[in-house]
Amino acid sequence: MLEQLKEACGVFGAQDFKNRSVFPYLYWGLRGQNHRGHQSHGFLTYDGTFHSHKGLDLVPKIRKEEIQEWLKKLPGPVGLGHVRYTTSGGTDYQSLVKSTQPIIEKYGDQKIAIAFNGNIVNTPEIIKEIREEYPNFRFNYDAELISRKLLRLGKKGNLASSVKRCMKEIEGAFSVAGMTEKGELFAFKDPRGIRPLCCGCSRDRKTCVVSSETVGLDINDFQLDFEINPGELVTASKDGFNREQLVNGEKRALCAFEFAYFARPDSKLGDKYVYEVREEFGRNFAWEYPETTSKVDIIISMPETGNDSAFGFHELTRIRWERASRRHRYVAERAFILLPEERYSTIDRKINIVDHKLVGKNVAVVDDSIVRGDTTKVVVKKLREMGAKKVYLFITFPRIIGPCFYGVDMSTYRELIGSRYDPEEIAEIVGADAVNYQSVEGLVKATGLSKDELCLGCITGKYPTPMAQRLAEEMKERFENGYKEKGRIYETAIN
Ligand code: SF4
Asked: If both were cysteines, with which of 9, 298, 367, 470 could 322 make a disulfide (CB 3.0 to 4.6 Å apart)?
């Protein structure tokens, strides 16, 4: 997708039971997951005291001569890492620096450190509760709410009982990796398991790690032990992981958008590699749209999230998949616009399309999603200028009709082209000959999970948590009555 839609974050945590430095694992665990957030990065290690490094932008490259300096700066056999894209709190420079994770929270003489992926829905309620004890508390970002709550509850009990209270009282998505003040690694997931988080060990089983995605393990040559269950708390020990199921009975609701866009194709979600699921998405196009498919001369994909689906589409139909679009490998940042007329050249800063392959052809363009539609319009215009006869869009993620409350920056109905128009109208607006979305049923089947195990909120209007459902309905009603949305209503209330 070229719209630069953002995931909330990626987390990584490690504890070594032979007292070796974990910084190299944290570093590579985050480098492997930088696609989950590139506004800021942070490391926190512990060797009796906490040591931290925080910075904006991508996880930096470390030159050979700098390695010892980094190891000295971040010593210790336990640590956390985090990459972030902001979905809560301010986005100005100062706020970004301030809210970079992992964070350490203090309460009296207690401390806790966490790295968090997700988004809290009942934010005002939690803020109110914290302010009963700290009247001057100023909300900056969601991670602060979880850590404050953990500490506040921790004074009355142990870690498991405070995590359990958090799971019961906080609504939303939270996959958390943390460290106690004694340097013990723990991790837990909200009762629906909306964001991924897995555990694994080194081959000698003396280093335990937790990672948002399995690629964080692969890059370190660690073995995957298990995906943390919704409502489960995991702690690391010299004998491996201790698992405690703290909350039962809620339906699992893994974010379906992870499969289509966020997760790396070589990560595993459920029992499948994401790239295999995406290939199936591509095959579904042929089954769901036989008539348009019969008119297609060539398939191209919007790299890289469209590649695997384009391959699946090609494999089943034998229509040539023309690798005519290539991403500029080292351009990861937002393609900023200086002049209005440059709007149409921003696409060139990210991908290069080889024009002679398109001339006179009916082109199927495989992409993962359409959110606002602006970039899609630019792409279609460009393909036509390059000589494409027909442009059919095949979109793997079904039409997005509502906002996300769980950590993806789609916060209003107004910004979503799919909430206002049907596929025929969208095709007209973006200038395509057809917009063919994969069906919700096709997507669900391809994941290997059941409808009841996925969050499909933004594509069905049925959200897995009660407050999100209520807010979505309220926001929809206001939107349909002409109210100008400025954000999710609970956030505009805070700000
Ligand atoms: S609402 Fe959509 S993007 Fe948000 S968690 Fe659910 S499926 Fe994912």
From this structure: 298
